Amino acid sequence: MKVKGRNILLTIMTLCLSLLFLFTIQPTHHTAYAADDSLQKIKDRGTIIMATSPDYPPYEFQVSKNGKSRIVGMDVDIMKQVAKDLGVKLEIKSMSYDSVLVAVETGKADVAMSGINPTAKRRQSVDFSEIYYNGGQSFLINKTDIGKYKNKAALAHKKIGAQTGTLQYNLAKSKIPGATVKGMDKNTDLVLALKTHKIDALGIETPSAEAYVKNDHDLAMIKSGYKLNKNETGSAMAFRKGSGTLAAAVNKSIDKIKAKHLTTQYLADAGKYMKVNTNNTSMIHYWNYFAKGIEYTLLISAISVIFGVLLGTILALMRFSKSKLLKAISVAYVEFVRGTPLMVQVMFVYFGVGIIVNLPALLSGIIAVSLNSGAYVEEIIRGGINSVDKGQTEASASLGLAKSDTMRFVVLPQALKNIWPALGNEFVSLVKESSIVSIIGVTDLIYQLNIVRADTYRGVMPVFIAMCIYFVMTFILTRVLNYFEGRMKHAR
């Protein structure tokens, strides 16, 4: 047993060291620039790729008009002007806010633009353009609290919300005495927390605060009163380290935009788009968003189920193999996958493996969910095989059946009957767990839910609709699984 445990531990350590080596070679690749070709690559490709999180009006958000959705906002208009000046087309990749800078660092995008503040800490990882807009900092509060919270000083020792990883989060931590700062990934979640009195105020940039106040009459805003360095508090574009030629070209466009005061026009255009969204905030108006989310959720779940079962079966057979190496690999894989969060695995496949192979977000999500499911299916199948009476194997051997035939025709069919309920539970869980792929911009149901919340300024109803949709999908799947379970019980 000691030898077996040592072999398994050695296999796990080898896997971890291999992954570590994959990332340690990245800096060498990035820093060994013979010449900066960041701009030339974009011109040769004919496309500049922008990473953004379209849930931050008026900077970037989605608008639904005539049944079609598109990403609009001030940042998008600025980026369109940059693309025009460079003579290339603009391609927008949407993802969660905490992934946009990672997308630039790993080469998934050429530029990150999502109301990003160029702080000193962020400058260590990415390059920044000049600041293209400085809207200032404010707090959103409930309108009923206007008399209670008149300025920043009144927020001392209160609960302050801010988007995780943002300047607003750090400012609330350092500049409001005794404040309890609550961070969340989405501003839509924070606004809902504010309206349900989970937090007392929400730190947010002034243009976004104004957008919420104009479209939600239950909210009000107060100025932050922060005394800040303008070089760190405005919005700038982020590039991969060493993208000097690209940054220089973009800065020329920014100078032209500032000289012509185009940001004022871009903000006005964003306001018009926001009125389009708020003219009709009924969930029926956004049915196509939810329909698209259902399509992607079912697609990811169906493909992941197939590959998860195949992988799980292979791993289970490896576990019962006479080869110690195959056993060790199977055990190491299952322990490693079950010991790491699915969210981390999704990000690793998309961003980490993307260093070597540039995988699309949808494919990355399917791969990550399939690999994760395979580990759990392996344990289910292994338990099912162990549940088959050993006498069945002995009887098969006495009849002259080979071990492979015994496993295929005797053990696995009986094991399938035993594990079907647990396997069905894994299928149902997979439908729900696939929602994690929204963090890399896959337009599944959760992703679409957050877009609808940002567009309509309605916090609860889109969540309720998505919850009902998930219930319907899983309920139908459960009924189908129960039907086949009944067929198995009556089969001889």
TrEMBL record:
The record ties this protein, via InterPro entries, to: AA_ABC_transptr_permease_3TM, ArtM/GltK/GlnP/TcyL/YhdX-like, MetI-like, MetI-like_sf, Solute-binding_3/MltF_N
Listed name of the protein:
Amino acid ABC transporter substrate-binding and permease protein
Signal peptide location in the record? 1-34
Annotated Gene3D superfamilies: MetI-like, Periplasmic binding protein-like II
Question: Which keywords describe this protein according to UniProt?
Answer: Amino-acid transport, Cell membrane, Membrane, Signal, Transmembrane, Transmembrane helix, Transport
* Gene Ontology BP term (one): amino acid transport
Give any Pfam family that matches: SBP_bac_3
Natural source organism: Secundilactobacillus mixtipabuli
Classification via SUPFAM superfamilies: MetI-like, Periplasmic binding protein-like II
